[in-house]
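TEACHING EXERCISE
Course module: macromolecular assemblies
Task: Read the component lines below, then compare them to the predicted structure of the full complex.
Student: A.B.
Group: 4
Components provided:
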Amino acid sequence: MCRWQWDVGLVILLLMSNARPACGGGTAADALNGTQRQWNGTERTPFQHDHANNSKKTFPVLSFNYDHVRTHFQISLWILLAFLMKLGLQLIPRLSSIVPESCLLIVVGLLVGLVIQVVGEEPPVLDSEFFFLCLLPPIILDAGYFLPLRPFMENLGTILMFAVLGTLWNAFFVGGLLYGVCQVDSAHLAGVDLLACLLFGSMVSAVDPVAVLAVFEEIHINELLFILVFGESLLNDAVTVVLYHLLEEYAGVGSVSAQDVGLGVLSFLVVSLGGVLVGAIFGVMAAFTSRFTLHNRVIEPLFVFLYSYMAYLSAEVFHLSGIMALIACGATMHPYVEANVSHKSHTTIKYFLKMWSSVSETLIFIFLGVSTVAGPHLWNWTFVTVTILLCLVARVLGVVGLTFIINKFRVIKLTTKDQFIVAYGGLRGAIAFSLGFLLKKEHFPMRNLFLTAIITLIFFTVFVQGMTIRPLVDLLAVKRKQGSKHSINEEIHTQVLDHLLTGVAHVCGQYGHHHWRDKLTRLDKQYVKKWLIAGERSEEPQLIAFYRTLAVNQALELLESGGDMLPSAGPSTNSLETLKSKIQENDQSLARISKQRKEEIRRILRMTLQNTEQKLHSYSQHTQDEAWTLQILHRKQAEMGRKISIFLADAAKLQVSPVQRRARLASGELRETASSPLTVDQCISTFFEPRHIFNIEKIPLRTTNQKCYKMTLCKPSNDKIVSQFIYTHSV
Amino acid sequence: MGSRASTLLREEEIEEIKKETGFSHSQITRLYSRFTSLDKGENGTLSREDFQRIPELAINPLGDRIINAFFPEGEDQVNFRGFMRTLAHFRPIEDNEKNKDPTASEPLNSRNNKLRFAFRLYDLDRDDKISRDELLQVLRMMVGVNISDEQLGSIADRTIQEADQNGDNSISFNEFIKVLEKVDVEQKMSIRFLH
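Instructor-supplied answer key:
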């Protein structure tokens, strides 16, 4: 369809931009050299022409100067192309439900790479520096900022076991056995020594967070499994960093002593704890800064992004684990920043993080495809197949063995199904490839061999495991994700249960994780919140904060969905009829309803009339449970509609007798105005002034077939009465 | 010293408790030593003062209710059997128990019984309904004194509105179960008892 033609056109444009400069090699540097020749001596802007040539040329109305925007143009075009492809792929209806998006993007990358190569240009390769410094941080920050902290902490022991011991086991198992195979098949693989094999093992052993996120998100698996696999993929970064650097250092030398191993263990502790510490420090700084942004709301998101990126870079400076720093930074600052920033900033932060991580993810997978074509490859059947086989076997054995130990310490044991998903979900991704790419050819002559094997492994896990995990999850009837918590009931009852469990644990004399969590929450409330949260929110109990967010969200949803809640709405007239009869029954209940109604309406109006431009779209990578949201929304709408319509029913029936309308002005004089009975609209426009506080009192009348209400509108600042209306209610 | 002998646990008692609650032998003995350490009066039963002597319970917002939950209806002393019976609610659910004889009575730590225990924390008058007032009391205990009555009232109203399905303006046990169906109660209400 026309979309494909558009995409093809873009690809061609991309190729042209690649091929543009006339100089051979086509690099930006050459192009720059070319134009520089013209500029020798005098300073010229790129727009001036060479005046040494004195013959008069016609003034160019339209000129073409591509070179000085070349790099930027290319980058922008790549990103645009990537996303148009992504859009285009979604147009094919059944494809996205069978094949996960990451696979499709890799295929697209392959195609683009092939096209570029066929044309004769050299396809760009995924530069490791670009990957680690630009593409990876947004994804990790997005994950860290929105990390569900509670399940993460509750399962921390399990996650650490998998991340540290599991990765070590994988690395040594694969590396060791691969070395054995290389010895056997010494025909082609004699050059691969033990340390190089172990290095290779360490590169392929780590579960990749990008791939895991990309696949697991689409299958909506339950929170426990998600956090286990994802948490493992985040925390194994420290292990990978240490192993990689250790082995890379000593692979050249050829041997590793016991002292080096000891230093390696120490280094691991430093790398992981140091990374977390750096991240936490930056997180606290960000939270502290956000306390003072009351008058500068626009720059709030900037602090979040910059502090996090600085945390990542600072950790990288000291060769600490950047990923753990980023996670620690995001998770630390999240509760405090959320309490401090405005609603718009909250939305901005969320959107930007999702957008950047989406960009990064797409680019990573496409570049992975392109780099595959770029090569250089050294294919060896034995090496590649043995690698894949060993990785699978190592993963399964590792998970089963570790779960056996872990289950002795867990409250909720991991079942076989859980173990299977954890093992099967161990996907490898671009981090492994980038680590391989970083190897220097001089030290590692078999670099190409490694790269080929890594790419094949990535393809295997992403395609085979990625595609089959969804039907397997359905087949095994694994518990799925339950829809996000937006019920105040759940919040209250969860808190009650927390207190209950802490209490019972203390009765039993056990100071387990309930005790520590309780203690931490208490410390947080007493000291930390006072420092990091601005204003009165620092003392707000969690329940109240939750309720407030809920009420605001609901009001905004209401505003968005039904601006026709007011007077002439269809749905409200039905309730109008039923309620007219109810009203005529009971005096007392009417007076009581008045007060409640007034409270309710006042609250709604204060919230909804604040800023009608605020729109709330819950956008998350996890699709929300639509039915549940809609159900709650409808119930709320019905309730609000009923309440508003009760009030308006009265207003509609009310007549204002002109004589009784008095306006007491601020000066204190009483002026009687004879005016025509107020129409409903006038009533509404008067009532719906959010500045005014109004009181409704019922005035008893001698005549029993009339009810009389006095409504007073006061200024909130000085309680001065602005106007008073007395209404008679005709029965 | 001599009176101590009468408070030692006999084997038959341990067996009975094991059958009733499902705790293991070592867990029972460990909890028994905790029981005796709390029992300052050394008469084999615990009173409310004994519980209140635990410092962490004093700062727990729901401390009083938790203590109440240990004492059966109307009584002021709880013996070791009662103590264990209450604690049995918090034992983790084990897989092999799910395959037991379906005609046997539900074990104390089943999901239903756990939820019923939690429900009783709210429902003081045991009328099988959490009324608005009862809810307000619990909310007040949890948020402290700085929050106005109005605010708490609107939270309570909202809570009941969300959960209430038969329109009686209170939360029955079934509605309570329904609201918590998404919460992993087995994990949230289980303590790993040390052996």
